[in-house]
Amino acid sequence: xxxxxxxxxxxxxxxxxxxxxxxxxxxxxxxxxxxxxxxxxxxxxxxxxxxxxxxxxxxxxxxxxxxxxxxxxxxxxxxxxxxxxxxxxxxxxxxxxxxxx
Length: 101
Hints:
The protein has helices spanning 14-17, 20-23, 50-54; strands at residues 39-41, 72-76, 79-89, 92-100. By secondary structure, the chain is α+β, with helices and mostly antiparallel strands.
């Protein structure tokens, strides 16, 4: 089942996305800036059992036991490129980039 936001494009600060480093025709990244890639931020849930999974219902809340503000890996095409924290922007869950490699 698709969520309402599943097909919405991610938003990026336009000043960063259109920086001179990426928009100049001879910039190193110029040839690939429009290629699509898979970006994910993983929240691991250690210690969950099959019994825990079978007990899940709509509306269940899973305690990750991870402290608020803990860094989470940012993956791009199976490569860790940085670390992030979950945040809330308006009514949306967002990812705040904390570190880039």
